[in-house]
């Protein structure tokens, strides 16, 4: 059975795969032959591999109020979109021209406004446009470039011609997803990529980086470029982190930046660091609460003033969103002739702005054949298909158009082309509506176009629009053939060399990032410690040994790991603690906070470590869904601990010893020191002439085998104190934590002597005692417990000093008590 047996090509649409004769088009032949050779079973396995990789990599597209959850996995079809190089050359030429035209239009709108004076654009369109930022009028942008990154959504009509459906000019999304699509699909068809000479994508992003560095205002420093994100809850946050990591630039939020004396600075661990260029993913009006939108918590107060003074490059320039309006589409042919002296090579879909009387009446007369859209692209209302309306709905829409004409545009309905997707249900190719988002980047040599793009496909077979927010998916885009590729712009092409900024230590590490790294390690260690305490209790219950349960229960309650209220048997208490998300010391509480911080640090976490965080999240969610036995609980704990140990090992073996690593190390050692201090203080409580918590202490420290091998006796206070308190070689000994913590703090940027001194005193007091010195009399044990209490308090003091010295530059979101 052929993969094409169920694939049908309608006569009223262009089919990307099949030609008029019903056979695959020439540029699809090699791909289809390859897919046929593989067969349905291999293709299904390949699709499953792609889906697993998406989950492991944490490729998400966040949809607000989505019942399936905020972090929706990215939908990527196995079959790429294929375009021949000759056809792509025409598309790329049209995109370059269009980007140049829109940039020139922005230059005029925020400058002399000759287009309005010469009636090439209606004055009412500009002055009534909420996206036109009046505070930005007159700002001179570096290099006269307003659009550094431009995207156009294009679609193919039934006659095979490409049309522009919309322009993306504020902070075009999807380029990072396109690159990830290539990595995922390329891994499934590596030989075919080489055989078809599919053009690579990576040089496009390097060119964008180098161009920003070239135009950035300069002082005596190497230009610092940052990527400004609204935060981890934004729908395309994965892409923000992905691009920042790939381009080697810091990912920052508005709270990480400040404006001083008309320049923008990054709040780093070493103090303020000048920012020269901002690649923004925050919408125009949210960028500056001082001059644009006062209720914005995403922007940087004073950013408009810094741009006005020419002290920072903002890409794209503030106010560029005005071009996204569908109202401008109908005016572009005349603007192209006027500004460029050329015909518009890649035309827009026929569009009428209802703010003009003649256009309004045309729209009303042809309402049944048009799609009504908001004139301003950021409006929440979706498209309205005139032909779907009944008489009452039609009359109501016409009344709205007449009452608020400038808010509407009418656009011809384009019967979008269809292309093949892999049908999971029938293991064959199925047709879906397709569209393509194409990207261009400004360089001193002119605009360059990414040789590919983000192909989007409708989620349902009978869909009329393509939107990823409402269930659509994506494809990799292959440009095949040997046509001459565009030479990417490099910093070496510029008259002034642009050096890529590197983070050797703390130079560009934002204080918020350092704080998040600190608490990431603390929550990981808290989760580890709480899981170990519950595992200790579970092992005792499975062995029917209740001798140490009262001491363990009291310690667990004091540490916030076990519920304070009596929930029944020890078994019920342990299982309740393992499921409870409200206990501040419980594993679930700490894992939730760990994963929250991990999401906010996507740009700092390597893909290998991110897969472990994803595994932890799946483990926690799966455990919360059902009821489990004690043995199930023990297996769950072991799996979580294995993941946490892997993360700790990855940090030790693969992370560069920079400030980010140092703050992780400080957080881990500080948390472990405080846990050991609390647990040992609580479990070393005597009952008569016995100390009942010794076996639990050894188990908590994962030192059962070491104790048996070294001492070959039942747990006794002297040997336990030696192993768990003062053994320099035991990474879970109390003294080891103190000495390691003091060493890491001493190597943090700047000086923090107030934090090291109390640790050194504790270390000296511990190191000066022999194991037997702690157990001569009950008062000796009391003195030990008092020292442990002092150590716990010293940990709080160290934490406060760290926050005062490094983390109070921003309103923190990552701290906890």
Word description of this protein:
- It comes from Viridibacterium curvum.
- This is Circularly permuted type 2 ATP-grasp protein.
- Pfam families: Alpha-E, CP_ATPgrasp_2.
- The structure is a single chain.
- This protein has 817 residues and is an alpha+beta fold.
- Among the domains are: 233 residues, Rossmann fold (3-Layer(aba) Sandwich); 297 residues, no CATH class.
- The chain has 25 helices and 22 strands.
- Strands 4, 5, 17, 18, 19, 20 and 21 form a 7-stranded antiparallel β-sheet that branches. It has a 4-stranded parallel β-sheet with strand order 7-6-11-12. A 4-stranded antiparallel β-sheet has the order 13-16-14-15, with helices on one face.
- A hairpin with a 4-residue loop joins strand 17 and strand 18.
- Helix 13 runs antiparallel to helix 16, helix 16 runs antiparallel to helix 17 and helix 24 packs antiparallel against helix 25.
- The longest helix has 32 residues.
- The chain is elongated, with a radius of gyration of 31 Å.
- It starts with 28 loop residues before the first helix and ends in a 10-residue tail after the last helix.
- The C terminus is likely disordered.
């Amino acid at each position: 059975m052929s993969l094409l047996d169920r694939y049908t090509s309608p006569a009223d649409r262009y089919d990307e795969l099949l030609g008029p004769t019903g056979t695959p088009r020439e540029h699809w032949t090699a791909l289809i032959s390859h897919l046929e050779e593989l067969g349905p079973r291999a293709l299904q396995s390949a699709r499953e591999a792609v889906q697993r990789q998406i989950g492991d990599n944490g490729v998400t597209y966040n949809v607000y109020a989505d019942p399936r959850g905020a972090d929706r996995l990215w939908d990527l079809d196995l079959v790429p979109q294929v375009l021949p190089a000759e056809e792509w050359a025409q598309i790329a030429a049209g995109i370059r021209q269009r980007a140049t035209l829109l940039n020139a239009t922005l230059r005029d709108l925020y400058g002399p406004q000759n287009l309005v004076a010469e009636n090439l654009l209606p004055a009412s369109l500009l002055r009534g446009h909420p996206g036109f930022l009046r505070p930005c009028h007159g700002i001179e942008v570096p290099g006269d470039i307003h659009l550094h990154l431009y995207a156009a959504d294009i679609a193919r009509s039934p006659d095979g011609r490409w049309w522009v459906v919309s322009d993306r000019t504020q902070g075009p999304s999807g380029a990072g997803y396109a690159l990830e699509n290539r990595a995922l699909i390329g891994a499934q068809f590596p030989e075919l990529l080489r055989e078809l000479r599919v053009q690579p994508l990576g040089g496009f992003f390097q060119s964008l980086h180098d161009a920003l560095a070239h135009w950035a205002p300069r002082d005596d420093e190497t230009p610092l470029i940052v990527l400004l994100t609204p935060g981890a809850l934004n729908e395309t946050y994965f892409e923000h982190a992905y691009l920042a990591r790939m381009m080697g630039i810091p990912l920052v939020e508005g709270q990480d930046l400040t404006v001083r004396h008309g320049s923008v600075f990054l709040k780093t661990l070493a103090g303020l660091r000048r920012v020269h260029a901002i690649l923004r993913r925050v919408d125009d009006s949210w960028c500056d609460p001082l001059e644009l939108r006062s209720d914005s918590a995403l922007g940087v107060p004073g950013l408009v003033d810094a741009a006005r003074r020419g002290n920072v490059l903002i890409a794209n320039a503030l106010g560029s969103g005005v071009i996204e309006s569908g109202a401008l589409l109908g005016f572009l042919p005349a603007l192209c002739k006027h500004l460029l002296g050329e015909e518009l090579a890649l035309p827009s879909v026929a569009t009428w702005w209802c703010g003009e009387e003649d256009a309004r009446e045309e729209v009303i007369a042809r309402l049944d054949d048009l799609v009504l859209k908001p004139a301003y692209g950021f409006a929440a209302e979706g498209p309205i298909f005139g032909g779907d309306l009944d008489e009452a709905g039609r009359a109501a829409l016409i009344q709205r158009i007449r009452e608020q004409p400038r808010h509407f545009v009418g656009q011809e309905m384009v019967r979008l082309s269809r292309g093949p997707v892999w049908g999971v249900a029938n293991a064959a190719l199925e047709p879906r509506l397709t569209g393509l988002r194409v990207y261009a980047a400004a360089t001193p040599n002119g605009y360059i176009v990414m040789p590919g793009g983000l192909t989007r496909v409708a989620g349902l077979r009978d869909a009329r629009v393509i939107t990823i927010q409402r269930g659509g998916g994506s494809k990799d885009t292959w440009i095949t053939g040997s046509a001459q590729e565009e030479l990417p712009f490099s910093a070496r092409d510029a008259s002034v060399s642009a050096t890529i900024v590197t983070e050797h230590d703390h130079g560009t590490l934002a204080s918020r990032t350092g704080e998040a790294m600190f608490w990431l390690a603390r929550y990981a260690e808290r989760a580890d410690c709480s899981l170990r305490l519950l595992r200790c209790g579970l092992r005792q219950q499975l062995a029917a040994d209740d001798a140490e349960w009262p001491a363990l229960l009291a310690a667990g309650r004091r540490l916030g790991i076990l519920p304070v209220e009596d929930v029944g048997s020890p078994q019920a208490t342990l299982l309740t603690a393992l499921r409870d998300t409200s206990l501040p010391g419980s594993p679930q509480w700490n894992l939730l906070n760990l994963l929250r911080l991990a999401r906010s640090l996507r740009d700092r976490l390597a893909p290998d470590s991110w897969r472990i965080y994803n595994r932890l999240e799946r483990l926690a969610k799966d455990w919360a869904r059902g009821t489990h036995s004690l043995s199930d609980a023990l297996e769950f704990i072991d799996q979580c601990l294995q993941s946490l140990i892997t993360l700790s090992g990855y940090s030790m073996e693969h992370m560069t010893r920079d400030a980010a690593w140092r703050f992780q190390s400080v957080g881990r050692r500080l948390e472990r020191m405080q846990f050991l201090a609390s647990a040992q203080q609580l479990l070393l409580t005597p009952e008569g002439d016995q100390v009942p918590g010794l076996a639990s202490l050894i188990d908590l420290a994962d030192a059962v085998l070491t104790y048996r091998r070294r001492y070959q006796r039942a747990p006794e206070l002297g040997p336990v104190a030696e192993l768990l308190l003062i053994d320099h070689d035991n990474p879970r000994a109390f003294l080891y934590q103190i000495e390691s913590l003091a060493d890491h703090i001493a190597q943090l940027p700047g000086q923090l002597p107030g934090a090291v001194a109390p640790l050194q005193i504790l270390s000296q007091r511990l190191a000066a005692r022999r194991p037997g010195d702690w157990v001569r009399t009950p008062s000796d044990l009391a003195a030990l417990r008092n020292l442990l209490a002092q150590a716990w308090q010293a940990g709080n003091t160290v934490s406060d000093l760290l926050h005062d010295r490094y983390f109070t530059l921003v309103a923190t979101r990552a701290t906890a008590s």
